[in-house]
Amino acid sequence: MHLQVWRWITVALRSRFAGLFLRFGGVYVIAREMELPFSLAGAGCVLSTGSTELVESVRRSSVAWPGRAVCELNVDVLVGNSSPLSPPHFRGMHHVVVASFGAANVFIFDLRRCIVTAKVSEVVARDREFWSRTLLPIMAGTLGATIGLLPLHSACLARDGFGMLIAGESGAGKSTLAVALAQRNFDYISDDWTYCTAPSGRLTAHGTAARVKLLPDAARHFAELNGEQVHTSMNGELAFEVPVEQAFGARLERQSTPRLLVFYHRTEGTATHFAPLDSSIARSYMESNVEQLPVQLAEASKVRSSLMDVVAALPCWRFACGGSPAHIAAELDTFFESQRRKEIA
Amino acid sequence: MTGPIPDPLRRFVPTPHVAAFSHMYGELRIESNDAAYTQHLLEHFRDALPETCLRAVEHIKLIVEHSLPSDGERLTQVDAGCLRTVLRGTNTILAHDTESRELLIFLSHDVSCHELVEHLLPAVVVTNG
To answer: Residues 164..203 of A with a Cβ closer than 8 Å to B: which?
Structure first.
């Protein structure tokens, strides 16, 4: 009890003399006195917070945004609160989405106004990994089309600026293939979710700093996973989740220009088959993999639909192959180079 | 390549239990996935006529989380412009949009209707008075 009283006195004094703290309903928060414009997977966003560590974390895990921002991330840090992250809980209704990681770490997404407002503990404000690897990817996925992004269930790799989107059903092995391609000197943009923008009709694919997620059997193929532990990921799957640049030495790029869309099907044998795919199938795949939006977000649905048209206009190929990730990556690499040469010619 | 689209946020839970009534400030529409809560809310608003609430809300959408018990009684309030959100623990969530006059609620099944109308609604509904 005495400790609590002293804590409030200390906070009150700090507030009075430093002018850095505000009191809301009996809880002190650090005033949002800093702003940082940054690119949220290709969309302009402004972070407002009182936490220098949070500003630094976002600065390190994103690129600067010089233009007009289309969304806000406002974060209040609860003074003296040390609540760690708890398992996440997500809910959404109409234009509101709530993501909580315990009662002290709450994020409210207002999709109508493109504003994310959060209250977090001091411990979480300092957790750089959480912001860069978890929260910013969640934010890009949740705001999505409301800020002009198409979250696409695909990996994205590139070489010399020539980008390739790799789509496929969950569990097909997109992430494993993405890592195997990164080991063949491809630039790594993303393994699972890629965010597409098309300002002025020019398609660009963006990645985040989310960890690469590999199913447990990936340990048979990648010695780099020795010593790593599988754990339950946010969608309930058991998986390795590792920073791809640290675990595999991948060259991480934040964006590329997609020139090719490949639908990958893992087969039993090692035979390889490529076949051109109609854009309507690409469109149908995208439709079936995007999050359903409520009628209250009809405008965002239209934006998303027009972005899908742009992606579906890419040359689309069906790629069927089996065997080791190294073999599959080698086959796709050969095909990729042939397509790239054609384009250059 | 197609299949049922998952609904992890529970955005599309059907709310077939609908009630509406007119009052001196307009109309209130209540929709829910639970008939009992719809009826309780209707009776509360029709009988008690909480003036400030009726002025600020014209649409209530309530999802009762039948498989999700409450996980704490602590209330967390987050204000963001036109949107006030109150969480009870993390499983019960109430959001009031003052501009669209919507009140959106996810309610753990063990939170009583009495607590909802007596404690949670006053905490979340932003009134001018």
So the answer is: 169
Q: What is the pTM of this model?
A: 0.91
Contact A119 B78 (CB under 8 A): yes
Minimal C-alpha gap between B22 and chain A (Å): 23
Is B72 in contact with A106 (Cβ distance < 8 A)? no
Q: Is A288 exposed, middle or buried (0-12, 13-18, 19+ CB in 10 A)?
A: middle
* Tokens matching residue B91: 């499983």
User: In angstroms, rounded to a whole number, what is the distance separating the alpha carbons of residues A247 and B127?
Assistant: 53
Q: Report DSSP letters for B97-121, one per residue.
A: ETTTTEEEEEEETTS-HHHIIIIIH
Instruction: Point out the residue among A94, A118, A291 whose CB comes nearest to the CB of B104.
Output: A94
- Cβ contact A169–B78 (<8 Å): no
User: Which SS3 state, helix, strand or coil, does residue A153 take?
Assistant: strand
Please give the ipTM for the structure prediction. Answer: 0.95
Q: At what angle do helices A325-344 and A174-182 cross, to 10 degrees?
A: 70
Q: Which two tokens stand for residue B22?
A: 């007119």
Q: Which long-range contacts (CB under 8 A, 24 or more apart) does B9-17 make?
A: B9/A90, B9/A91, B9/A92, B9/A93, B9/A97, B9/A291, B10/A91, B10/A92, B10/A93, B10/B63, B10/B65, B10/B106, B11/A92, B11/A93, B11/A292, B11/A294, B12/A292, B12/A294, B13/B63, B15/B61, B15/B62, B15/B63
Per-residue pLDDT of chain A (345 residues; tens, 9 = 90+): 455 555 554 444 444 444 466 665 567 788 888 999 999 999 999 999 999 989 998 998 888 998 899 999 999 999 888 999 999 999 999 999 999 999 999 999 999 999 999 999 999 999 999 999 999 999 999 999 999 999 999 999 999 999 999 999 888 899 999 999 999 999 999 999 999 999 888 999 999 989 999 999 999 999 999 999 998 888 788 999 999 999 999 999 999 999 999 999 999 988 999 999 999 999 998 998 888 899 999 999 999 999 999 999 999 999 999 999 999 999 999 999 999 999 888
- The letter for the amino acid at A18 is A
